[in-house]
Amino acid sequence: MTIDGWRITGQSQIDSYVGENAELAVLMVNTLVVTHAHGRRVEPPATGEERRAALAVVRPSAARLDLADADTLAAAAAVLRSLFARDARLSALNDLLIRHAAVPNLHGDPPRLAFHRLEASLGDAWIAQAGTALAMIIGVGQGRRLGSCEAGGCDLVFVDTTRNASRRFCGLSCQNRAKATAYRARRGST
């Protein structure tokens, strides 16, 4: 099994394969869909060229994407976004997996497990891999580990790998902003 509770602490272990592809889903959502990050409005890239360039900044292999694939990734990222927001549309994820032919197979030398056809475009491969990783996390009862930042003005998503699945913020800057806001609210009410 890919995700398994450890025998003594019960902490879930996400293996590197699922973790790598779940982070791909995070990258796609945060780069192509999010409109607020760290308390500021951000404009998601609007064209295939802008999307490819934005993805290439954080994942150099994105430079090989064709423009249609970049647009397809943006549409898929919108579907994946719902899984992190806890309003999981599992039927939409299932449809996405079917549409992009997420099928387990081995290819490469040495053989590596993949969830896309060998001849799949880079965009379809990324969607199949990311969608399958999220489906595996949800399918073993760990969907609560898919989170969205709780700080005001931030829509960034993350995969919670903490021991007790208690992560609430995308990073330290949002955590500090939220704590400062709560402190000012308490100080103002006394």
Automatic annotation (TrEMBL):
Its protein name is CGNR zinc finger domain-containing protein
Q: InterPro entries annotated for this entry?
A: ABATE (IPR010852), ABATE_dom_sf (IPR023286), Znf_CGNR (IPR021005)
**Zinc finger CGNR domain location:** 145-187
Q: Which organism is it from?
A: Nonomuraea mangrovi
**What domain of life?**
Bacteria
Q: Name one Pfam family in it.
A: zf-CGNR
